[in-house]
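Final report, closing paragraph on structural work. Over the funding period we assembled a curated collection of sequence-structure pairs, and we close with a single example.
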Amino acid sequence: MKRFDSLHPAEQIVIMMDRIYTGGMTTTSGGNLSILDDNGDIWISPAGIDKGNLTFKDIVCVKADGTVVGIHKPSSEFPFHKRIYEMRPDLKAIVHAHPPALVAFSIVRKIPNTKLIPNMRLVCGGVGLAEYGLPGSRDLGDKIAKEFAKGSDAVILENHGIVVGNTSLYEAFMAFETLEYCARLEINGAKLGKPIGLNDEQIEISRNKNHADMEDLETVDLSTEERGVRREMCQLIHRAYKQKLFTSTQGTFSQKLSDGSFVITPYSVDRNHIVCDDLVRVKDGKKEAGKLPSRSVTMHQAIYNGQAHVNAVIIAHPPNIMAFAVTDQVFDSRTIPESYIMLREIPKLPFGITFMNPEEAATYFDPATPIALVENDCAVITGSSLLNAFDRLEVLEYSAKAVIATRDLGEIVVINDEQVDELEEAFDLPRK
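Its predicted structure, as stored:
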């Protein structure tokens, strides 16, 4: 992410700490971020300053000779940041925080399963587990650095939290956010049954998934219609990210235009900061020049080709509905009328179908089946418009969250067949 990496280290730390704090992944007093610059200086968040209200001037610089520059003291955890940089010179940024799901793993002293869906292992890298140490102590720093020296890029701290290192603060944040997502997904899956991970062959198949081989469109003149679609898509992508329906690296929207082309989110652009110009138009198998569409573009195209009633597609991985995708549990939408009306019956498709046989996958999305889960991969949501598809995504995730919550309350009583027939007639719902 060039636009972010070109910012001053202090500004990067302020932006990312705000994102971590507002995302509910740290507290006012918890967590610290650092960047090692080209001069060997370490820029780090300060000790004892509100993490929800940091400014550029609050960030501290510890020079290579140990001189401290700034109006505050550096974080009390500075010793382990310094020790990690000494042990792993390839790392240039560190994120440390106490997000709830990863704290849960730290206090049972386990490592989240990063093989539940394909991209998690790729983004997170290897994950280690460091023995407990007194916060701020050299002992803790040595124990964390020892795990990084083994090649781990993220380390769970026993009864403490998580430390992630990478080549930039943005890359470290992506791995941190993704690992917290892994933890939430596994916790939700465990409430339903036993989460089932992918094997190495399946992960390798997904890793080698190629970008669609597409020629460039000669020119792209934006119509008023397309400008409106791009604007709405960006607004909804930002909402999806804030609501944790997307992560910074995962989640794809597309919208069909009246000329048969469609607009789709790009590959590897931060979903929290995506702008209209980042989006990619695709027409007649060709893409907007100089841009790379999401690798799921062939699945979107197959749905539009095979299902004329569909005008928008979302592929997402929200952690509550995905708990059903990584276990053998079936999601039943007959919980409340809105859920059944919006979601209908949701088939579970085999892993790999969306990129190995998208044409077959597209056949499932008839008018009576707007949504499908793909085992250990994603949820695919279709709609008559962007807003309709997004509404379904929200209802899908919120309904799944409610079903998971019932595990602590009692047995689910679903809407019965007679009541389903009544709903289908009253709301003129398409039937199989």
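The CA atoms of residues 249 and 269 lie 7 Å apart. The radius of gyration is 23 Å. We thank the funder for supporting this effort.
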